[in-house]
Specification:
443 residues, alpha/beta, Rossmann fold, 2 domains, 6-stranded parallel β-sheet, 4-stranded parallel β-sheet
Length: 443
């Protein structure tokens, strides 16, 4: 069984979906499965070895230009190849990473229209490349690519699998009328996919309700990480108590709320420090500057360390330096990749009670939950872990053990492969039953 796994690049920044897809493909390849990882829009960026193919399909520059002008919809292939250069796409991706969803509504709707959209030339190129590969399963990266599923299914007769990957944040932010049009197209196109795979029970339920996807077509393959990389236990300094944040620096991830909670702890006379790491895009620099100004105004900046972006090795060392980890995201998170990595390192977490966080914390016993948006509740939870080392150690041990047992990349790969096999098996059985049905004789 051959799998063509499509992954959407994120414009030069670390992306949880890219990291998950790359880790899943890497694990399946390690298991000697016939899998090829094909980037869409942009080359992917991950802190693990990149197992994707060098060529980029649905190249972001061509997709954008074809949306803007009919000239590029009929441009010669030699020009398309220039625009699809991975090096050029990486450079443009860094500049475009701050583009807001509200500016991409028309493009999103066009891609969802598939062969009726402005990117039909890109779709034909993708169909042609996949025809040469002859995959049994084509795995789409998210709901926004359902528009190409219809053509892939009719042209290639492959089984179509679609990830549910946290696309609600982007789609909910689209301006009207594009948001309504996108939701309508997703609802109409859902039958073009044979199965949807969710990374958490929360997101499976949410997508069934939010996008009106048939819940019977949604399967669960929980997030998985390379747990062996986090085998060394956290070894933080006892003094001062260290709170850590590792995620994108943006309003959606709640860094300002964590900084306010940290300042409250310091003003209460508690000896603690805050370490911050993560990608900072151009568009979010004013947000970070405002946070820094506030921390300086409150006279707590001298106990804050901004590490910036980190490599794989630096991330592991960063997590090992923490007493507690918290990313108080303002929105319900579909995955919670960073929570699993913190827990695998033996660092207890403090997370809001929405999205996948309650599911992860309850399954692992690795930390505390607090009411979303309630700063005082966040302060109390952090203070409780400061004041109770034995309870903190219990959370750390439970979380680490549970993640290694329940959320490994191998378990994620095994669950995903079982879904592939089941889906292809059902499809073959349906074809066999259809072929064996007796035909009526001509009168």
């Amino acid at each position: 069984m051959k799998i063509a796994y499509l992954v959407a690049g994120a414009g030069g920044m670390y992306c949880g979906s890219c990291m998950r897809d790359n880790r899943l493909a890497a694990e399946l390849i390690k298991q000697k499965r016939d899998v090829v990882l094909l980037p869409l829009y942009m080359p992917i960026r991950t802190d693990e070895p990149d197992v994707s193919e060098g060529r980029v399909y649905y190249g972001g520059i061509n997709v954008f230009l074809q949306q803007k002008s009919a000239i590029f919809r009929h441009a010669p292939s030699v020009l398309d190849k220039v625009f699809d250069s991975p090096a050029l796409l990486r450079g443009v991706g860094r500049l475009a990473s701050g583009t807001r969803p509200e500016n991409l509504g028309a493009l999103t709707v066009s891609v969802l229209k598939g062969e009726q959209g402005e990117q039909r030339k890109e779709l034909k190129k993708l169909v042609s490349a996949l025809r040469e590969m002859s995959p049994d399963v084509i795995h789409l990266p998210n709901l926004m690519f359902l528009g190409i599923a219809r053509a892939l299914r009719s042209e290639l007769q492959a089984t179509i699998v679609c990830s549910l990957a946290g696309e609600d944040i982007f789609l909910d932010a689209l301006s009207e009328p594009f948001k309504l049009q996108s939701f309508d197209l997703i609802r109409q196109l859902q039958n073009c996919a044979d199965v949807f795979i969710a990374p958490s029970q929360y997101y499976a339920r949410h997508c069934a309700e939010h996008f009106q996807i048939d819940s019977d077509k949604i399967e669960l393959a929980s997030m998985g990480i390379c747990v062996d990389d986090f085998s060394a236990l956290a070894d933080p300094l006892d003094d001062p108590f260290t709170i850590g944040y590792l995620a994108r620096i943006c309003p959606e991830k709640g860094l300002a709320e964590l900084c306010e909670a940290f300042a409250s702890l310091r003003r209460a006379g508690r000896d603690c420090r805050l370490r911050i790491a993560g990608y900072l895009g151009k568009a979010d620099e004013p947000y970070w500057e405002h946070i820094r100004s506030e921390l300086k105004r409150l006279e707590v900046w001298d106990m804050v360390e901004y590490v910036g972006e980190v490599s794989r090795e630096e991330k592991i060392d960063f997590l090992r330096s923490l007493n507690v980890f918290s990313v108080p995201a303002a929105y319900p998170e579909a995955k919670g990749f960073y929570v699993l990595e913190a827990l695998a390192s033996g660092v207890p977490v403090v997370q809001p009670t929405h999205g996948s966080f309650p599911e992860l914390v309850e399954a692992t016993g690795g930390g505390l939950l607090f009411e979303p948006g309630n700063r005082e509740a966040l302060v109390r939870a952090l203070a409780e872990l400061m004041d109770n080392p034995s309870r903190r150690r219990g959370f750390a041990e439970n979380g680490r053990t549970s993640v290694h047992e329940l959320y490994s990349a191998q378990r994620m790969a095994d669950a995903t492969w079982a879904i592939y096999e089941s889906c292809v098996g059902r499809k073959m059985e349906a074809k066999s039953n259809t072929a064996s049905e007796p035909k009526l004789e001509e009168p």
